[in-house]
Design a protein that fits this description.
One of its GO terms (molecular function) is orotidine-5'-phosphate decarboxylase activity. The protein has a single domain (2-236), classed as Alpha-Beta Barrel (TIM Barrel), CATH 3.20.20.70. The protein has helices spanning 10-18, 32-48, 63-75, 89-106, 124-129, 137-150, 163-166, 197-202, 212-215, 220-236; strands at residues 2-4, 27-30, 52-59, 80-84, 112-116, 155-157, 175-178, 207-210. Helix 1 (10-18) crosses helix 2 and helix 3 packs parallel to helix 4. The protein is an alpha/beta fold and 237 residues long. The chain is globular and about 45 Å long. It has ten helices and eight strands. It binds orotidine-5'-monophosphate.
């Protein structure tokens, strides 16, 4: 279970993490908001507290630019990172090369790379009318997942609702990481394709990303524990 540290400043993010008695047990996501303020220093500050870091910068550019950015990300020793599958197979392969080379140069393990398929804020209607994608949304997600796998990536980000359809034909250890997690009857905010933590696990999700339901809770540590217990519930049945 991954907490999205969508905070405006590094100080806010570190204060949040320090509320937890064992930060070294946390897996946290640094996304664009926090990274654009805190840069590599916030990644290193979290790592020095023992936090496992998912650096989510959603790279989507020409292959050469993505490869160069990948070298910098690779050198950081983060556990996970992201690129957009819609950047194409050549771009995804370039990201992998860059991350592998950056990691080798600084003697750390290369980050596993996830491809963003269709954002969980995208509705089927927006996919059809704005992106002019003619196939149904689960089919588009499935196609991009297959492309990510053949490009050598380690997994995908999608809604948990699409995981079951993607599984056949993909490696057993392929990572299905699913944001858009909400408790039953909770507000969806800007998310469209949502699922509860326990339903996501049952649907085959390998990891959930949870932000506001934890970070904006009155008691974030209690909210984290509650969502974690729901996420683990299907395993205990
Ligand atoms: O790459 C992501 O993590 C991501 C992909 C996606 O399709 N949807 C999505 O919500 N996310 C991220 O997951 C987190 C979800 O946050 P909450 O909606 O606050 O739980 C945010 O940090 C998003 O950037």
């Amino acid at each position: 279970m991954i907490i999205a540290l969508d905070f405006p400043t590094p100080a806010d993010a570190l204060a949040f993490v320090r509320r937890f008695p064992h930060p070294e047990e946390l897996f946290c996501k640094v996304g664009m908001e926090l990274y654009y303020q805190g840069g590599t220093a916030i990644v290193q500050a979290l790592q020095s507290l023992g936090v496992r870091v998912f650096l989510d910068l959603k790279l989507h550019d020409i292959p050469n630019t993505v490869e160069s950015a990948g070298r910098i990300i690779g050198a950081l020793g983060v556990a996970l990172t992201t690129v957009h599958a819609q950047g194409g197979s050549v771009m995804m392969a370039a990201a992998k090369r860059g991350i592998r080379d950056g990691a080798a140069a600084s003697g750390v393990a290369p980050a596993k790379i996830l491809a963003i398929t269709q954002l969980t804020s995208t509705s089927p209607t927006a996919l059809r009318d704005e992106q002019q994608v003619a196939v149904p949304l689960p089919e588009s997600v499935n196609h991009l997942a297959q492309l990510a796998a053949t490009s050598g990536l380690d997994g995908v980000v999608s809604s948990a609702a699409e995981v079951a359809r993607m599984q056949p034909g993909l490696p057993d250890d392929f990572l299905f990481i699913t944001p858009g997690i909400r408790l039953a009857n909770a507000v969806h905010d800007d998310q469209v394709r949502v699922m509860t933590p326990d339903a996501a696990r049952r649907a085959g999700s390998r990891g959930i990303v949870v932000g506001r339901p934890i970070t904006q809770a009155a008691d974030p540590v209690a909210a984290y524990q509650h969502i974690k217990s729901l996420w683990e519930e299907p395993l205990n049945e």
